[in-house]
Amino acid sequence: MILEDDRFIYIHREFTMNALAASSFAFGLLLGMLLFLEIGRRLGVRRLANDPEGARAGAGTIEGAVFALLGLLIAFTFSGAAARFDTRRTLIVEETNAIGTAYLRLDLLPAGAQPPLRDLFRRYVDARLEAYRKLPNLEAVWAELNKANRLQGEIWSQAVAAGRAEGAPPAATMLLLPALNEMIDITTTRTMASKTHPPVIIFIMLFGLALVSALLAGYGMAGGKSRNWLHMLGFAAVMAVAVYVILDLEFPRLGLIRVDAFDQALVELRESMK
């Protein structure tokens, strides 16, 4: 089980990264690539003036290698981000199934022990839902996560006590407690899945390769009499959008790409508990 202070620190970092750094990173990349395109073009013009015949010697091989590496890195980061995005959506469904299974197995307990536990389950699902609905209000999120953590402990304690009560069938403890354990464990799995991202060096390398590619592309444009703004802006914008989408997939709670729709599974489960 993850400590709630750790969860709060992580949520703060995720919000900061997604809301501020992702857009800043993409916008900075756009400006940086335009700058390096212009620098590359000026270097190319100067080289052509000094050595018209040898200015482009060997440039094609170098450009091909750099652009191939850039394409490979983009494909790698995009594929990984998309896979992690799908994993997070799947875990929402798995948590819903785990809670639903545990809730149904309350029927195994004595009739008198069931109402308090069912009420705890309703409050627990409400807390789990509210923790995500209240983003980016970090204090409210922290409060809901703490509430859900306390409810986990109460549910477990009452279930153990009910399973030991007189008249409780032996199968009650054998079937209910593993389901409760899975319900509790999935929260840690979801937390760790949302923390899983590529090392920062990958994004730094992506940023650096994009700038180097812009420099080489600008150098290749030096043969024209004027700047080709369509190609310059198009190249920089496409790269910036691609990087932004990758970062948005990595942090899907606060950006344009979201997993909120899959929370509907938990909402429907809560409605079935009435």
Describe, in short, the structure shown.
The chain has helices at residues 4-50, 59-104, 114-133, 138-164, 170-195, 200-220, 229-250, 264-272.
Annotation field: number of helices: 8
Mean pLDDT: 85
Instruction: Count every beta strand, where a strand is a DSSP E run of 2 or more residues.
Output: 0
**Could you list the spans in which at least 5 consecutive residues all have pLDDT below 50?**
1-5
What is the total domain count? 1
Structural class category: mainly alpha
Q: Kindly estimate the percentage of residues that lie in beta strands according to DSSP.
A: under 5%
How are the SSEs ordered, and which strands pair?
Elements: H1 4-50, H2 59-104, H3 114-133, H4 138-164, H5 170-195, H6 200-220, H7 229-250, H8 264-272
Helix pairs in contact: 1-4, 1-6, 1-7, 2-5, 2-6, 2-7, 3-4, 3-8, 4-5
Descriptive overview:
The protein has 274 residues and is mostly helical. The protein has one domain. Helix 2 packs antiparallel against helix 5, helix 2 runs antiparallel to helix 6 and helix 3 packs antiparallel against helix 8. The longest helix has 47 residues. The N terminus is likely disordered.
Based on the model shown, name its key terms.
about 270 residues; mainly alpha; about 80% helix; rod-shaped; disordered N terminus
